[in-house]
Predict the structure.
Amino acid sequence: MKFARFIAAGILAGTMLMPAAGYAADKPVVGLVMKSLANEFFKNMLEGAKADEAKRGDYTLKAVGMQSETDVETQINAIESFITEKVDAIVVAPSDSRALVPPIKRAMEAGITVVNFDVALDEKAKEEAGVKLAFVGPDNRGGAKLAGDALAKKLGEGAKVVIIEGNPGADNAAQRKLGFMDSVEAGKLDLLDSRTAHWETEEANTLFSNMLTAHPDIQGVMAANDSMALGVVKAIDAAGKTGKIQVVGFDNIPAVQPLLKEKKLLATVDQFGQQMAADAIDKALKVVKGGAPLEGWVKTDIKLIMSEDVK
Amino acid sequence: MNTSDASLPGQMRIATTTKTILREAGIGIALLVLILVFSTTTQHFLTASNVTNILTQVTINLILSIGMTFVILIGGIDLSVGSVLAFCAVVAGTVMTLPGLDPSTAVILATLSAVAGGIAFGLLNGFISAYWVIPSFIVTLGTLNIARGAALQVTNASTIYSFPPAFNAFGSQTLYGIPLLFLIALVLVAIGWFVLTKTVFGRVLYGIGNNEEAVRLAGHNVFIYKIAAFTICGGAVGIGAIIYMARLNIASPIIGIGFELNAIAAVIIGGTSLSGGRGSIVGTLLGACIIGVLANGLVLLGLSDFMRQMITGFVIIIAVILDKYRERLTKA
């Protein structure tokens, strides 16, 4: 009896795996190459894409995520197996702006529609490889400037601020820093220090406590993501300076909602991550169905969220 | 007591104690030199608020390092502590935010579940490596992934937040400038010191690191002692998870990445031998302080992020080289 059930379960599992082996002929197949699914942001993005697949029902989604933020090889392998499987479109959020260019070139040469979203491929690397590819994604620099400007407006000219940077080497971290620097210049702020906390709450907490020791007169903080802003706010509370130092973040994650309500976080930036992969897939499918190829930079929505807007 | 006294001749025990004190003095001097350098080169290093900061920043690593000391003393290693910390934190965070619990019950249940989670992983690490005689390096590399995956699975990769306000406030409270969280760590240091130096159990752990076969022949159940060392480490990780939550008011499945390396560094800088058998909790306390003081002081000095990382690396290597010389001196 038990053995029979075992076999039945095996057959059932086999049939469930079938679509992955031989796709239904009529529906186009989209290969989605994501960054680390351990990151809430990308996890939500994947869920948005799956919801889109279920809603539209006219394509098959194959998604691959990475083990960690820097696991470039998994992405390259994923693209290569998508080429072998002859998918119709590959939608990719590159973990490395340069390393992904060669496999993407091979995919395009195999006649696959490729859409680059979330993080832009390096222009120079594309040029050297002779790849012409549009980018669908948010303006991280513009978004960071929105948050930075909100801080500058609140504090006024000459205010002393610090920047907490994301991972050195990550394109979005670099763009957000540039955006903050734009605000520093435009708002005539006094930038005391700028350091990385590698996107991490605990590291940002430690780093900002130490910055505050070195510069007890800090008035404002620009954090390149909300996870780090959480650590900064906690450090301000611990130093007994609640309300005396203004903080802006980026990403509008659920965990900062209470901080926005309590006015401990002045502003953050929403780049509608949940929709980003789904949008890129929709754009890829239009091209697959004979629409005009994408060109240049297709900017996706960003929005400044101020604490006074959060009820 | 008797068995241990019988297996360790009196002469040797005194020599061991002297060596330990000499070693700890060396590390203490290194720490003092660092403190001296930073207090002369930076303005704010020795201010009360900065000392509070350093102690807060040392706390989590210190707690993990205490547990790690037990494991390294028996010649093992635990690479899973960072992931297990994340697992314990999300389990505790889930319990703490359960609807309908009053705050104090929620905090107590969360603490118990964090420690239970840590102990469970410790038992698993200890049992697998002792029963099948597999190097703990490999076993804990496996549980590192199991715990991280489990933490992500439990939370579906999302961050848990909004803990009771009193719990959040507790995380930044101080007593005469000393963070309460650090005082908890100090209590654990005292307990660890007592267990390792004043009990048969502790001496047997040293014995396993020095000569496992001899301990076995002396009639001790090495299997149980090994499991116990890993379990203590796991329990410490569970406490560390609660401390993390109190300090930062969040629990997320991606916290704690690389914490195992900081803990191992603190233990090794503190003079504990990676091959087991010698070292002390006091050394670990000093080692954790050296790492904390260095991280803090280098930021105050205004050094770049990349320079900071390089200097921390150099200090770890120098500490191990110095330890080699100390070993030779004390042997002579």
Remarks:
- Chain B has 13 helices and four strands.
- The domain at 48-331 of chain B is CATH 1.10.3470 (ABC transporter involved in vitamin B12 uptake, BtuC).
- Chain B touches chain A at residues 42-45, 47, 49-50, 53, 56-57, 60, 148, 152, 156-159, 161-162, 171-172, 244, 247-250, 252-255, 257, 295-296, 299-300, 302, 305-306 (CB under 8 Å).
- The first strand of chain B starts at residue 160 and ends at 161.
